[in-house]
């Protein structure tokens, strides 16, 4: 926390400036408390220069006890069945690579009710060890309960790296853990690697115009969230079984402040998940109106796929926000991705470049989308796509 020198005169300017209420006057001297985030706002207003931030590197923490790569495994629930979200296998696949480079173990962490049925599949994706918190009390996701369980496990076993999915749950859970442990968290990583024993966390920055490499040399664990469909799923140990570590962690009474009264599942939304679709038909500004997207819906129905949209189409109100593909939307890794009337801004490319086959239709021959597609067609997508739908229907009827 902030450091207070002996020449503090107790003027109180720092107390009023602190946005977190982390300073108070005790015997006419500023005293920081645990709410201090070391933002430095108080340092600049002190008239006698009595406040200062700790000197970087002044106090080095022994990090030798921290080892192993952990992947938080999210369990999805569509109202009928529960299963491991595919991004969990992606985290394990990448985690296996990182753990091998570090010479450490790969561990899966799974919290829920009846999670033992997932052990064999998690083991096949390379997990050496599985930490399981298995109780009916964890049947439904609760931020405080899950965060308490994860913090308890991390404090007990001291992992070096912890990976979370960039899902609704992962994005809700990981910052809570980060703040409780007072460690960093790099969000929405698109690349992970090891250099000099440190985790190098790569993510888009400055609106996607550059890729930033972020590292955390002084604190543990090193924590990241990773978007679904960024890394490939690889079964590295078929038929193997990881070591199972069962942990009993009671749910704190305070978690009862938030209770699930009832659940409603949208059947159509559950069947039309962009991040899990093998075929994605995406439209951009070039589709112009809802009639243009109706054509894409028809094509998606014929191919058994889902319809996505670029940021421009979302801003025009042609599709809801949850259908956005790109840096600030969903990341997809479809077997077939068809980009219709999408120019190909870098923010959109980040969200679909991992697809196997990319087909682009755009009337601008110089559109950036043609730099990443396998097949490109120069033309008006609004005129071309109805013909494609007819051709697909005829082919299916033969």
CATH architecture of the largest domain: 3-Layer(aba) Sandwich
- In CATH's first tier, which class of the largest domain applies? Alpha Beta
- Gap between N and C termini, in Å? 73 Å
What composes the largest sheet? 7 strands, parallel
Name the CATH superfamily classification of the largest domain: HUPs
**Spatial order of the strands in the main sheet?**
11-15-10-5-8-9-16
CATH topology title of the largest domain: Rossmann fold
What is the number of beta strands?
21
Number of helices: 10
Q: What portion of the residues fall into strands of 2 or more residues?
A: 15-25%
Structural classification: alpha/beta
Residue ranges: pLDDT <50 for 5 or more in a row? none
Provide mean pLDDT, rounded: 87
Tally of separate domains? 3
Percentage of residues in helical conformation: 25-40%
**Coarse morphology:** globular
Which value, in Å, is the CA radius of gyration?
A: 25 Å
Provide a descriptive summary of the structure in words.
By secondary structure, the protein is an alpha/beta fold. It folds into three domains: 3-52, Alpha-Beta Plaits; 69-256, HUPs (Rossmann fold, 3-Layer(aba) Sandwich); 273-397, TPP-binding domain (Rossmann fold, 3-Layer(aba) Sandwich). It contains ten helices and 21 strands. Helix 9 (346-349) links the parallel strand 19 (336-340) and strand 20.
